[in-house]
Amino acid sequence: MTSALSAEPLRVVAVVGSVRAPSKTTALVELVLQTLAARTATETRLIELHTLGPAFTGAAEREQAGADVEDALRAVEGADLVIAATPVFRGSYTGLFKHFFDLVDQYGLAAKPVLLAATGGSDRHALVIEHAMRPLFGFLQAWTAPAGIYLSSGDFDGTTILNPEVYERVEMAVADVVPVARALANIRSHNAVPV
């Protein structure tokens, strides 16, 4: 029997909907990626949406998006696990975040594990994961991990995470999602049609 560390690496793609850098949301995602890498073999890619520029923001439809945007969309659609993270803006995800997932193929995330994460100014925004993010990914037919991760400004000093409880929450969320991501990746690899 092979261990999880000797298995094929999980292809993990993190999408961060922050509108600028440095970003608390990116800091949270980097912690999640480190925690994943400590638990199982991974190949990771971090997509910070604000870096995609006018070829992304000016695309009303996917066919209008530039090559870099298409590459990012394909990476998400081909991932074994997606980390979807956004700062809270006016009670919901950012416009960049929604625009990106509007361009993802309608079935590109079907049955794909997605770990939801968000940051906000206070704990009053903590339900953004349940009331805004989870319905969006439900529409896309993704499998959202039961535990989302929400951090408020009080958990940070700048972009440094100070609250020790955050590490426990991240560990719990990762422990929930890794077995599902591995199982679904194995099913996909066994059902792949040879070219």
UniProtKB/TrEMBL annotation:
InterPro entries: Flavoprotein-like_sf (IPR029039), FMN_Rdtase-like_dom (IPR005025), FMN_Rdtase_MsuE-like (IPR019912), NAD(P)H-dep_FMN_reductase (IPR051814)
Keyword Transmembrane helix: no
Residues annotated as signal peptide: none
Keyword Transmembrane among record annotations: no
Residue ranges constituting the NADPH-dependent FMN reductase-like domain according to the UniProt record: 11-153
UniProtKB keywords: Flavoprotein, FMN, Oxidoreductase
Transmembrane segments annotated in the record for this chain: none
The organism's place on the tree of life at top rank: Bacteria
Annotated protein name in UniProt: FMN reductase
Organism: Streptomyces albipurpureus
Record lineage: Bacteria, Bacillati, Actinomycetota, Actinomycetes, Kitasatosporales
